[in-house]
Design goal:
Elements (H helix, E strand, L loop, with lengths): L4 H10 L7 E4 L2 H15 L4 E5 L12 E4 L2 H11 L3 E2 L9 E2 L3 E5 L10 E10 L4 E7 L6 H7 L4 E6 L7 H10 L4 H20 L2 E11 L5 E3 L3 E4 L8 H4 L9 H8 L3 E4 L4 E5 L2 H13 L6 E4 L6 H12 L6 E8 L4 H15 L7 E7 L2 H9 L5 E4 L2 H12 L1
Parallel strand pairs: 14-16, 16-17, 17-18
Antiparallel strand pairs: 1-6, 2-3, 2-6, 4-5, 7-8, 7-10, 8-9, 10-11, 10-12, 13-15
Bound molecules: guanosine-5'-diphosphate and manganese (II) ion (MN).
Guanosine-5'-diphosphate binds next to strand 2, strand 3 and strand 10.
Enzyme class: ligase
Pfam families: ATP-grasp_2, Ligase_CoA
Protein name: Succinate--CoA ligase [ADP-forming] subunit beta
């Protein structure tokens, strides 16, 4: 589950990580009030107005702007709220902005130039350890840095049983070229950042940029936080931060029905039991010249009610031109699934307007095939994987 920047920053701050301070606002008037409050609290005269959507690259898309007085705060906030923000990480239609973060300007002039770094905390599945990835090249696309100047990206592996050790925090500050107060600030910053990551059961923190201000403070200017959804049951406060407006409406609805559904761009809807088989089915569709329209794991009990719910979800996607049902009957018997498909189809009547290919394999597969073939419905049966793929190809042609 992803958090908004302002929520991520609040989380970090609660663990003692220094952040660029800000107040979230739902409209231009609230933005002005927020700016006034920030000026009282921090003394800042300038503010940055930042679109709060679940996508990076907002700066490039015009979703992060500097306001030098309250009139500009009002104007920019009014502009950004309600816009469909297009960034390198959104679709071409963009994402609707419902709120902005009004933040203190932290790039103020001083003895030194402000400097931007990159830092993320994530799990290295290969070594089974957490790692902190960081770079002197902050503020830009880390993918570009990785491609063009990979030697400027450092990693520090953390043993989860000891947590981050003081020498590791110092090594990070040293590799970033820091000294004096900024060095001390950085060791505190990474130590608290790591603690926040572990204690919130996050799967990703990406802070880009981490800023060294002109007076040598180290702070998070941006925060991308991804929480591990499987651990949310023990973080009720964090679970409550979910913003359904940022998620695909179909995915939210499927989740409520207990279906594991991921919306994709293709033309062949998939209904499969088991995540592994669902992945293999998507590969098969691609090989047959189609593109999967979704990932859908209906789970173990593919009865009529579940199959019908799955049909309805799949058909909400107008790009679907055919549906491939691929079920392995291990514990669930194929004839029960076949009956479920037939019942659901009859129940839905005209709502099903695309060809359906059903491949059932496993317990009672032959009985299931007879059931489908004799149903009188526009459903094609297959027993082999390849046969199913060929039929998909035929209906798409
Ligand atoms: P992103 O584009 O979605 O990654 O959003 P960021 O929060 O990283 O902001 C984008 C850019 O806005 C940063 O890299 C900074 O260059 C700039 N920015 C952020 N905060 C401030 C600020 O307080 N003052 C100024 N002048 N620029 C800022
Ligand atoms: Mn950023």
């Amino acid at each position: 589950m992803n958090l908004h920047e302002y929520q991520g920053k609040e989380l970090l701050s609660s663990f003692g990580v220094r952040i660029q301070r800000g107040i979230v606002a739902q409209n231009a008037e609230e933005a002005v009030a927020a700016a006034k409050k920030l000026t009282e609290d921090t003394g800042t005269g300038w503010h940055v107005i930042k679109a709060q959507v679940h996508a990076g690259g907002r700066g490039k898309g015009g979703g992060v702007k500097l306001a030098k007085n309250l009139d500009q705060v009002k104007e920019i906030a009014g502009q950004i709220i309600g816009m469909d923000l297009v960034t390198p990480q959104t679709s071409a239609e963009g994402k609707r902005v419902h709120q902005v973060l009004v933040a203190e300007d932290v790039y103020y002039p001083g003895d030194n130039e402000p400097e931007e770094y990159y830092m993320s905390v994530l799990l290295n599945r290969g070594t089974g350890r957490n790692m902190i990835m960081y770079s002197t090249e902050g503020g830009m696309d880390i993918e570009t840095v990785a491609e063009e100047t990979p030697h400027l990206i450092f990693t520090e592996e953390i043993d989860p049983s000891t947590g981050i050790l003081p020498f590791q925090a110092r090594r990070i500050a040293f590799n970033l070229g820091l000294s004096g107060m900024a060095f001390k600030e950085m060791t505190k910053f990474v130590t608290n950042l790591y603690k926040a990551y572990v204690e919130s059961d996050s799967s990703l923190f990406e802070i880009n940029p981490v800023l060294k201000t002109s007076d040598d403070k180290i702070m998070a200017v941006d925060a991308k936080v991804t929480l591990d959804a499987n651990a949310l049951y023990r973080h009720k406060d964090l679970a409550a931060l979910r913003d359904l407006r940022e998620e695909s409406a179909i995915e939210v609805e499927a989740g409520e029905l207990g279906l594991n559904y991921v919306d994709l761009d293709g033309n062949v809807g998939c209904m499969v039991n088991g995540a592994g088989l669902a992945m293999a089915t998507m590969d098969l569709i691609k090989q047959a010249g189609g593109e999967p329209a979704n990932f859908l794991d209906v789970g173990g009990t593919a009865d009529a009610a579940r199959v019908e719910a799955a049909f309805r979800i799949i058909l909400k996607d107008s790009g679907v031109k055919a549906i491939l049902i691929n079920i392995f009957g291990g514990i669930v018997r194929c004839d029960r699934v076949a009956q479920g498909v037939v019942d659901a189809y009859k129940n839905m009547g005209d709502a099903i307007n695309v060809p359906i290919i059903v491949r059932l394999q496993g317990t009672n597969a032959d009985i299931a095939k007879d059931l489908i073939d004799n149903s009188g419905l526009d459903v094609m049966s297959a027993t082999e994987f390849q046969e199913a793929a060929d039929k998909v190809q035929a209906v798409l042609a």
